[in-house]
């Protein structure tokens, strides 16, 4: 085995070790687990337990309110994962010099960032699927009728959320600063996703503005796919554009030290 090949093998093994270690640390952090995995499905259960939310024609476009809120609780764990969970962790690693020390080992700092994005992305997707299952089994909410369109919008939304989290961690020198920035962006993101008012129920002018935001476009794309239509290409384009811009910005401004 050549020196180069041996180095690559050791690097891959070290990267796998980093991923396993970060998974263990994530599972030991109750705050992140609750925010990403428990809170969104629990919110759906609470809303679905309100009789008015289950009444026919109580929501926009003749839907029940609970039908309109399932896509919102699908988006919510992605926002939490990117802004509230992942960003402070990465900024904390920079603050404590962990990223700098890693540069002297076979594991390069990007491996840690990749592990964090993989873990939080998988947790967000698992929570989203759990919300879909609860909606179907507990409240008779139909599963997305346009499955491929829904999956495309879902994956783009995950990329956007994690890229946004990476951008926050790129600009934050400490975990506290990352938490502060994340909280500042978190609540507008929840509003655009429709947590307090579904996008379909917003005044036309406000809805047009919200649909230009990543999570507003994601909410509309998912609603269209859930109803059986292919998501509007304009909404998918907004998601793709945000994904490219946020990824490029986080790569441009990210510092390992």
The helix fraction, in percent, is over 70%
Low-confidence stretches: 1-10
The class by helix and strand makeup works out as mainly alpha
Number of helices: 10
Shape type: globular
- How many separate domains make up the residues? 1
Gyration radius over CA = 19 Å
Task: Please summarize the sheet with the most strands.
Answer: none
Q: What is the H/E order?
A: HHHHHHHHHH
Could you tell me how far the N terminus lies from the C terminus, measured between alpha carbons in angstroms? 34 Å
| Fraction of residues in β-strands | under 5%
Average pLDDT metric:
86
Report the strand count: 0
Describe this structure in words.
76% of the residues lie in helices and 0% in strands. It has one domain (8-253). The longest helix is centred in the N-terminal third of the chain and has 31 residues, at 65-95. Helix 2 (30-48) runs parallel beside helix 5 (109-139), helix 3 runs antiparallel to helix 9 (214-226) and helix 5 crosses helix 6. The chain has helices at 3-27, 30-48, 65-95, 98-102, 109-139, 147-171, 175-193, 204-210, 214-226, 233-253. It starts with a helix and ends with a helix. Residues 1-10 have low confidence and may be disordered. Residues 31-257 form the ABC transmembrane type-2 domain. The chain crosses the membrane at residues 33-53, 68-91, 112-135, 147-170, 177-197, 233-254.
